[in-house]
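Journal club prep — side note

Before the paper discussion, L.F. wants everyone to see what a predicted structure for a comparable chain looks like in token form. Sequence:
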Amino acid sequence: TKLARFISASGSSFRCPTVLKKSVCGTAPASSASLISLPPASEFPSHPAGAAPGRFQGEAHPSLRSPGAAFSYHSRGPAALRSTAGGGGGSRRGPGGASAGAAPASSFFGGGRTRTGLLRSARTPRRPAGPAPRGRSTAGPHTRPSAAIAARDVTAPRRARVTSPPPGRAAGGREGSDVTAPAMAARRALHFVFKVGDRARTARFYRELLGMKVLRHEEFEEGCKASCNGPYDGKWSKTMVGYGPEDNHFVAELTYNYGIGEYRLGNDFLGITLVSSQAVSNAKKMGWPLKEVTTGVFETEAPGGYKFYLEDKEKLKQDPVLKVTLGVSDLQKSINYWSGLLGMKIYEKDEEKQRALLGYADNQCKLELKAVGGAVDHGTAFGRIAFSCAKEELPSIEALMKKENQKILTPLVSLDTPGKATVQVIILADPDGHEICFVGDEAFRDLSKVDPNGDKLLDDAMAADNSDKWFAAHKMKKVSA
């Protein structure tokens, strides 16, 4: 993937990526691009002194206001990744022979970073935890070290071996797994991560139709070093919504990249099933499209096309979210991974329908694997499912995946949140490339406490985000990933 520097002068043009093909192997093909023209520099007022950070001032699009390095874009070609420093002279020739002007970014942005949350090169090495270099702020849980360093090597990890398969091991699963049965019993399903392009409509769907609550909301100025918001470098937000506290409910993590308007769906995420007659009633009152797929079960879609299946029954006293369904190419191979390596119990297996239901406990949200009859396509909307485990189990999970030659997308890393707990996570990928996050349970329980101001923080952020109006006023569309 080729990365070229871009600084826009008055009336110049630039290319933004519109197609992202994620690779779990650490590389990605060059992204396609569509042409977007910036208005003259005079239409971008600088950030007024004393203005509230993170708020949209005048007509300057918020995704262009992250402080830091200069704007960059991806173009076709095999050349190596190039750095983009703010300002500077000269010009670079872009795709199709077009040259980008080199006027300092500060001339029309009032200084600071001008990137809009565009695709981060998948060739960039994953960065492990470590002290931030001088001159770099460590605020926020998703800041990344500026230096590209080799993946963290865990040596001599502690392992607890068993001599027989733990309960629920799949047929064909590996003997002597590096995880104990008690450790697996302590694991719990946490959330599924969705990328959303229309934050306002998405919030309405979860709050007014499904009846979920905003549990916490956070805004970030740059991408996450564990790629929580996908492979994007710019300003983004995270909103956790659910029917109850994250300690005992499976919730949704909604990630919003300010410069991205929509994502392409694949056949990897097949739906979430929950029990709520109130949600069915709400959908009918709101005129939201519903389709009865079986008696008492209705299919609907969240903004972006994510499918939800609503069982028209009284909401359960415990967590109403029953299962997450993911598409797989080879059911038995996937069962061997999720049960044989990750230690999930097999609750159901239907060879005829090519589906299986797995989980860590009877009272938790389950994972349903369903064969799609071919390769799994993750599109650009690919999500991530998260689980917690004891902190001391994380090195063992990492060591086991290395031993079994399985994919590790992000080696064990620490994420810091000012004023909150530091959590350790490791990001894996199953045989079909589904992203899986394991996080240390103790710190995560502290981090994920319900914030009573969550609703207000989300509403304030949406009120400050006038990006849709900005794009409409300039007869432009947000980038399609």
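L.F.'s comment for the group: The longest helix spans residues 199-209. Keep this in mind when we get to the figures.
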